[in-house]
Specification:
The complex is a heterodimer of chains A (299) and B (501). Chain A has 299 residues and is an all-alpha fold. Chain A has helices at 3-27, 37-47, 59-75, 92-113, 117-148, 153-159, 162-167, 169-186, 214-239, 246-269, 278-298. In chain A, helix 1 crosses helix 9 (214-239), helix 5 crosses helix 6 and helix 5 (117-148) runs parallel beside helix 11 (278-298). Chain A is globular. With 501 residues, chain B is an alpha+beta fold. In chain B, strand 13 and strand 14 form a beta hairpin. In chain B, helix 4 runs antiparallel to helix 5 (209-224) and helix 7 (262-283) runs antiparallel to helix 8 (303-328). At the A-B interface, helix 5 and helix 10 of A face strand 10, helix 7 and helix 9 of B.
């Protein structure tokens, strides 16, 4: 039973990317790629050879594996709506945050290892923005923990019920907004980053993986899908009641699709922020989450 | 009036012997006087004299008086640079030094403009190649260099950009071009104008096909004394404006794309194609090849086609209006456009910027008004000017020009004069010199033609607007975030092959 969450995460995560891409395409008046395109891409990349720079010290080869391993471990910790996570213990959200941090850290090391000035620039931006996103994430988690009295992700997310929505709606909404902003920043989406741009000078995440190819790139792309899925799952789980009713699982999946469409809407309705404005957005997310925590304390 | 200069009107041919060959110091004094008086250096071509003497012609334009001043001198061994006083001559001097082998004295950036390769090699005649010079350097904590290109991520032309950055901020950008050099000017020398020469002109810079072929044909017609019928003139103007509309629409979309604003990017991408297709109704080619010929136009329009064109332009213009309105009404887009890549009016004047980039800084300069020919003599187009000089200004000027060009094209299409027989092109007179100016969508296009003693091309100089504007881009990104370079670059949208020739 518990493994279901892990298997669902591993199988369905690329589909969420598809939902985002399809909604963007439809909003731009295009038909869009097939829904299974991310899977096709992964298969295509897995079949290809790999090219390594001969000036790298080998970290560039290590990065995709470590990153993917860290993110796959994360799937063990995140509950999917009514499905509890395989492993849950007090303070597991800290492990989750730093597993994702580890994935980011090795990706940055791999980027620096290539010796390209673009990739160093991307790594520097990623490090800066991640440092600002992290407190927002922890404040949001702390707010949830205070509200529910639980310190594990599964405990927190499955305790939230209609009762909480009746009494703690403002905090919950603030936490959702904060998590959504962190979600956009962590996953390199507009308005923080543009995942579809070809302009290296403007990229944050994409520029760090310019020198990866073949199966390595497939691992990174799959990691991207997993990360989006997991972070969206946390937000969606807040909204879904717990219990064994299969309807709740269906509701969870619908909510995941809604988040995908929401991301597509955001990306189709606004431009990217200027790089120097991104910290303000992330600090804003931190303020929202902090306010939620404050409300929980005064209540 | 400048001492030693010959004053001509636009497209007025003058015998080369009538332009006095000044001693170098007199020439430079005259040039300085002109530039200090606010004149614009349109071209500084090297002449290929019959006797093997190397000579230089300077073409200065006086926009208010609508006159051109021509100065001639013998090429010295050492060229004392005026670039520090008058930055607009910098690129011309670099080009001249490279073509004639003279050395530049006191030039702030003496590296060659293009590194003209010898036949079959990648190096020029002294073994230099693109990027072989020492780029400017800056050292210190947090200083780093970013080298971009010549191979780029998008489907664009090759060019090398070297950024000196302090963290995310650009201190300086050095642009190194020349990868697209094809030797067009050299290929024209000694030839008699023919269909093949016209094709070279049409492919000089693919997106300015009509602009460059029009400048070429204007020069030949004026030299040969051919009058082009009114109807042909109107069709040419329609073609030129359609080229402007298509490119400006494409640019608005590309600028939206660069800030990650999907709706306008998708709409304009399609609409640019729609306007290219309307150009194809004129001549069967989306980029307008074969429409402008010496003596007139290659194809006439019938009433049915005019009707279809008018309908389509109206439909697509409504869509462009919608896409552009989205752009102006989206705060996140405006936050990226406004106060990004700002140039002042003085900088635009000093650097000698042209086209929408100059007009966005408040510099009123438009060949369609300053040096009008054909249709533009009878129908005045307002000059679209803005004052902010930033990316927003360059986008807005493009939008204003789209609106005014659409109105112009619709008016011309519905009021075409009757067809008259076109005079076929014959021979060029010997030893004449002429300057032809056209306002292409990117800015002022200048062709200087000097004929030899048999009526062949003695020297042919093409000055694409990009030559004037590349230094403007380098200045615009100073102090900006390096992340804003692509949007600044797109707001100029300069040609590589037009520059490299």
């Amino acid at each position: 039973m518990s493994l279901t969450a892990v298997i669902l995460s591993l199988l369905l995560s690329p589909l969420l990317l598809s939902v985002i891409n399809r909604s963007k395409a439809l909003l731009a008046g295009r038909r869009g790629a097939p829904m299974l395109q991310p899977y096709f891409d992964l298969v295509r990349l897995l079949k290809k050879g790999v090219v390594y720079s001969n000036v790298s010290a080998g970290l560039v080869q290590l990065a995709p594996v470590c990153n993917l391993a860290a993110l796959m471990l994360c799937t063990l910790l995140v509950p999917l709506g009514p499905l509890p996570a395989l492993i849950h213990f007090q303070g597991d959200f800290i492990l989750l945050a730093y597993l994702m941090g580890l994935g980011r850290f090795v990706t940055m090391l791999g980027a620096l290892d290539t010796g390209s000035s673009f990739e160093g620039m991307g790594a520097s931006r990623e490090a800066f923005f991640a440092a600002l996103a992290e407190p927002a994430f922890f404040l949001a988690m702390a707010g949830l923990a205070k509200m529910t009295g639980s310190q594990s992700l599964t405990g927190m997310l499955q305790t939230i019920s209609m009762d909480h929505w009746q009494h703690n709606a403002p905090s919950l909404l603030l936490i959702l907004v904060a998590l959504f902003l962190v979600f956009l920043a962590e996953n390199a989406r507009i308005p923080v980053d543009d995942p579809t741009t070809h302009l290296e000078l403007t990229m944050i995440h994409e520029v760090m993986i310019l020198d990866h190819s073949g199966p390595d790139l497939a691992m990174i792309e799959y990691g991207v899908a997993l990360k989006i899925w997991l972070m969206a799952a946390i937000a969606a789980s807040i909204l879904v009641p717990s219990g064994t009713n299969p309807l709740w699982l269906a509701l969870f999946l619908v909510l995941m699709a809604v988040i995908g469409v929401l991301v597509g809407l955001v990306e189709s309705s606004m431009a990217r922020l200027r790089l120097i404005r991104v910290p303000q957005l992330l600090i804003g997310a931190g303020v929202f989450a902090g306010l939620a925590l404050f409300l929980e304390f005064v209540q | 009036m400048i001492e030693g200069a010959v004053t001509v009107r636009h497209k007025e041919s003058v015998s080369l012997q009538d332009i006095p060959c000044l001693p170098f110091h007199t020439f430079q004094a005259a040039l300085s006087t002109g530039l200090a008086a606010g004149l614009f250096l349109a071209a500084l071509p090297k002449l290929y004299g019959r006797t093997g003497k190397k000579e230089v012609l300077a073409v200065l334009r006086h926009d208010q008086r609508r006159r051109l001043y021509l100065l001639r001198t013998e090429m010295p061994q050492q060229w004392r640079s005026l670039a520090k006083e008058f930055p607009q001559v910098a690129s011309f001097e670099r080009e001249l030094a490279e073509e004639s082998g003279c050395t530049l004295q006191g030039h702030p950036q003496p590296s060659p403009l293009r590194y003209l390769p010898q036949t079959g090699t990648a190096t020029d005649d002294v073994g230099r190649y693109i990027g072989s010079h020492d780029f400017l350097r800056a050292e210190g904590e947090e200083m780093h260099e970013v080298a971009v290109g010549p191979v780029h991520a998008g489907i664009i032309e090759p060019g090398h950009f070297r950024f000196l950055c302090y963290g995310e901020m650009v201190f300086h950008l050095e642009i190194s071009l020349g990868f697209q050099h094809r030797g067009i000017e050299a290929a024209l020398r000694g030839r008699v104008p023919d269909r093949r020469m016209l094709m070279l002109m049409e492919t000089l810079s693919g997106d300015t096909t009509i602009g460059h072929s029009l400048a070429h044909c204007q020069a030949l017609e004026a030299l040969a004394g051919i009058t082009v019928p009114d109807r042909a003139m109107d069709i040419r103007a329609i073609a030129l404006e359609l080229e402007r509309i298509a490119n400006h629409v494409g640019d608005l979309g590309a600028m939206a794309m660069d800030v990650g604003y999907a709706p306008t990017a998708s709409f304009c991408g399609r609409l640019r194609g729609a306007f290219l297709n309307i150009t194809a109704m004129l001549c069967g080619n989306r980029y307008g090849r074969g429409i402008v010929l010496p003596g007139g136009v290659g194809h006439d329009l019938d009433d049915e086609r005019i009707g279809t064109m008018v309908d389509q332009i109206k439909t697509h213009f409504a869509d462009v209006t919608e896409a552009a309105t989205l752009l102006w009404n989206t705060p996140s887009v405006m936050a990226r456009f406004e106060e990004t890549g700002t140039l002042t009016r003085k900088q635009a004047k000093d650097l000698g910027l042209v086209g929408p980039a100059a007009r966005a800084c408040g510099k009123e300069m438009d060949n369609r008004v300053d040096f009008p020919t054909g249709s533009y003599r009878r129908h005045r187009l307002p000059v679209s000017v803005w004052f902010t000089g930033d990316v927003y200004g360059r986008a807005l000027v493009r939008w204003l020009e789209i609106k005014r060009s659409v109105a112009f094209v619709l008016a011309r299409l519905q009021d075409l004069p009757t067809w008259e027989e076109q005079t076929p092109f014959c021979r060029l007179p010997a030893d004449q010199c002429i300057v032809s100016l056209v306002e292409g969508w990117r800015g002022s296009i200048c062709h200087v033609v000097v004929t030899g003693n048999d009526g062949e091309i003695g020297a042919y100089k093409v000055v694409d607007p990009s030559v004037h504007n590349w230094p403007g881009l380098a200045l615009a990104v100073r102090g900006e975030g390096i992340m804003d370079f692509p949007i600044c670059n797109k707001s100029f949208n300069l040609s590589y092959c037009g520059h490299d020739l």
